[in-house]
Design goal:
The chain is α+β, with helices and mostly antiparallel strands. The protein folds into 2 domains: 63 residues, no CATH class; 46 residues. The chain has 2 helices and 7 strands. The strands form 2 sheets. The protein has a 4-stranded antiparallel sheet, with no helix packed on it. A hairpin with a 5-residue loop joins strand 2 and strand 3. The longest helix has 27 residues. It is elongated and about 75 Å long. It starts with a strand and ends with a strand. Bound molecules: zinc ion. The site of zinc ion has 8 residues, from loops. Zinc ion (ZN) binds next to loops.
């Protein structure tokens, strides 16, 4: 029984980032059939995950800050401009059926109801609905 020294190298990649470790650990036979992993290996994975995840989240946040469109959205808008159609503005609500972001069917039309409503349409599945504008 007792500890056994092991040299280990870890290369952990996620979201296009890679974290590495080159260290030695104590590997020990635990009680019964339970083999124990050195706490530092667990710590490495936790820290590497948190670091790479934070960087990934920062990049996504920066894209959202810049209001960058996806390529699909850009291309759809470009085709609509070529055909002389105005792209439908985003309604900032998710489709109740497929969760795609819904769009105003007619950017200029508000229904004369109380409260006022606008027709929204889902570019994903075609679902039409009303969005209360209050
Ligand atoms: Zn939908």
């Amino acid at each position: 029984m007792g500890d056994h020294r092991a040299d280990i190298k870890i290369k952990f990649s996620m979201y296009g980032e890679t974290e590495t470790a080159d260290m030695w650990i104590n590997w020990s036979v635990g009680s019964g059939e339970c083999y124990e992993v050195d706490q530092r290996v667990i710590d490495f994975f936790r820290d590497a995950y948190l670091k790479m995840r934070a960087k990934y989240d920062d990049e996504i946040f920066k894209l959202q800050e810049q209001d960058v469109k996806t390529l699909d959205d850009h291309n759809r808008d470009a085709y609509a401009r070529m055909q002389g159609q105005e792209p439908r503005p985003k309604a900032h609500v998710a489709c109740p059926k497929c969760h795609s972001e819904m769009e105003y069917e007619d950017p200029h039309m508000v229904l004369a109801s109380y409260p006022p409503k606008r027709v929204v349409i889902c570019p994903g599945c075609g679902h039409r609905d009303y969005k209360v504008e209050a």
